[in-house]
């Protein structure tokens, strides 16, 4: 069992039979009344984010998590398919559950697949990835690094990001996977 005192960002807990990932938490001790914990939780089943408040000291079932290196094979519109590089075992995870991380994942990339109670649930990405720009409008004469301004660009994975005016087709750029923003040229 896990109490509210043992909460950590990224941990998983079970609340009322539903598994959540703790995104943020804050212990609050008001001047009057009992202490409580404010949390922001992501439901694993559908990735919905909710705010929830718990009494201090409340207990929850601890959820066993494990991360395994797997290769992303393809997404077929319904499921995303992964293969264990060691045993060649293949698994499928519903694509709707992985919509955000799949924006930054290319076919045959190595990813960490998160298993919750031995069921594949999510993929964990690095904080930034390097991707190639596959489509963007050409820059205008005089567009420089100090010129300012942005334009939309489509990356090799199909994701859309805003990039500086000097970025052109074929450039490799670094994108922050948490915010979806351009960081730098790669």
List the topology elements.
Layout: E1 2-3, E2 12-15, E3 18-28, E4 36-43, E5 49-55, E6 59-62, E7 65-75, E8 79-84, E9 90-94, H1 99-102, E10 110-116, E11 119-124, E12 128-136, E13 150-155, E14 160-164, E15 172-176, E16 181-185
Antiparallel strand pairs: 1-6, 2-3, 2-6, 3-4, 4-5, 7-8, 7-10, 8-9, 10-11, 12-13, 12-15, 13-14, 15-16
Question: Mind describing the biggest β-sheet?
Answer: 6 strands, antiparallel
Q: So how many helices? A: 1
Assigned CATH class of the largest domain: Mainly Beta
**Gyration radius from CA atoms, angstroms:** 20 Å
Query: On the 0-100 scale, what is the average pLDDT?
Result: 86
CATH architecture classification of the largest domain: Roll
Helix fraction by DSSP (H/I, runs of at least 4): under 10%
Shape: flat
Query: Can you write the helix and strand succession as a string?
Result: EEEEEEEEEHEEEEEEE
Number of domains: 3
Proportion in β-strands: over 45%
User: If strands are numbered along the chain, what order do they take across the biggest sheet?
Assistant: 1-6-2-3-4-5
What structural class do helix, strand and pairing data support?
mainly beta
Number of strands: 16
N-to-C terminal Cα separation, in Å?
44 Å
Give a concise summary.
The chain has 186 residues and is mainly β.
Explain this structure to me?
- With 186 residues, this protein is mainly β.
- The protein folds into 3 domains: 61 residues, SH3 type barrels; 60 residues, Beta Barrel (OB fold (Dihydrolipoamide Acetyltransferase, E2P)); 58 residues, Beta Barrel (OB fold (Dihydrolipoamide Acetyltransferase, E2P)), CATH 2.40.50.140.
- 2% of the residues lie in helices and 54% in strands.
- It is built from 1 helix and 16 strands.
- The strands form 3 sheets. A 6-stranded antiparallel β-sheet has the order 1-6-2-3-4-5, with no helix packed on it. A 5-stranded antiparallel β-sheet has the order 9-8-7-10-11, with no helix packed on it. A 5-stranded antiparallel β-sheet has the order 14-13-12-15-16, with no helix packed on it.
- It is flat and about 60 Å long.
- The model has no long low-confidence stretch (mean pLDDT 86).
């Amino acid at each position: 069992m896990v109490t509210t005192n043992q909460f950590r960002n990224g941990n998983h807990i079970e609340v009322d039979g539903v598994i959540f990932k703790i995104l943020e938490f804050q212990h609050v001790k008001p001047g009057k009344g009992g202490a409580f914990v404010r949390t922001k939780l992501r439901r694993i089943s559908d990735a919905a984010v909710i705010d929830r408040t718990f009494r201090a000291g409340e207990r929850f079932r601890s959820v066993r998590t494990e991360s395994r290196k797997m290769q992303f094979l393809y997404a077929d519109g319904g499921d995303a398919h992964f293969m264990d590089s060691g045993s060649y075992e293949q698994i499928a995870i519903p694509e709707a559950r992985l919509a955000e991380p799949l924006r930054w994942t290319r076919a045959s990339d190595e990813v960490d697949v998160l298993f919750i109670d031995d069921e594949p649930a999510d993929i964990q990405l690095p904080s930034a990835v390097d991707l190639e720009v596959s489509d963007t409008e050409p820059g205008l004469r005089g567009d420089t690094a100090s010129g300012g301004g942005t334009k939309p660009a489509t990356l090799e994975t199909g994701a859309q990001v805003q990039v500086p005016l000097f970025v052109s087709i074929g450039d490799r750029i670094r994108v922050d996977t948490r915010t979806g923003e351009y960081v730098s040229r790669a």
